[in-house]
Structure formats: structure tokens, C-alpha cells
Amino acid sequence: MRLQEVQLAEAQKNLESYLYQNCDFRNLADNLIYSKITGVDSVDSRKGNTNLLYSKEYENYIFQFVAYGSSIKESEYLDFENEKQSLITLIDQELNNIN
After folding, report:
1. N or C: at which end does the chain have fewer Cβ atoms within 10 angstroms?
2. pLDDT at 46 (0 to 100)
3. Is the pLDDT of residue 6 over 70?
4. HEC string of the chain?
5. Beta-carbon count within 10 A of 8 CB
6. Is 61 exposed, middle or buried (CB count within 10 Å of its CB: 0-12, 13-18, 19+)?
7. How far is CA 65 from the centre of its chain?
8. pTM of the model
9. Comparing 68 with 47, which gets the higher pLDDT?
10. Angle between helices 56-72 and 2-22 in degrees, nearest 10
11. CA atoms within 13 A on the CB side of 69
């Protein structure tokens, strides 16, 4: 389980790093009307972010992020978490009985 969580965190870090290097956040803010809400002037010359759609590297980072994320959402992970919590509860009960 921890390996999957580490892989997902690494995938997120890779994707964030790539976006920081290659994304035009100001343009994104304009498109989401965030600039208007915050009172920041819109950009006159728009570069856009279509370059991301054509990037194989971006596609690979997205795939990695989705693949690792979906494995964590599988039912086995949730069953493990429930079983772990049940075990913790049982241990707590036994420890309370000793005292």
C-alpha cells in the first residue's frame, strides 16, 4: 500500500513540476475568470496551453498519475484499510482489558 502511495505522490510531483515549467498559469487564470474575480488585469497576448495537448511527456505524466491513483482506489485497498482499523480497535480493547 505504501509503495502505491509513494508512486502516486511521485507522479503528482512530476506532473506539477512539468506544469510549472510548461504551463501558462496567467492564461489559465484568465480562462477560469480568476483574474476578473481577483481584480488582476487580463493578459493582452495569449500564449495558451495547447502545447500541453501535443506533448508526449505531459501525456505520460497524466497517464502515470491516473494509473497510480486508480490503483489506490481499488476495493482491495479499502478492504485493507477497514481490516487495519478493525485490528487497531481490537488491540485497543485488549489493552483496555489489561488495565
Report:
1. C
2. 64
3. yes
4. CHHHHHHHHHHHHHHHHHHHHHCCHHHHHHHCCHHHHHCCCCCCCCCCCHHHHCCHHHHHHHHHHHHHHHHHCCHHHHHHHHHHHHHHHHHHHHHHHHC
5. 19
6. buried
7. 7
8. 0.53
9. 68
10. 150
11. 10
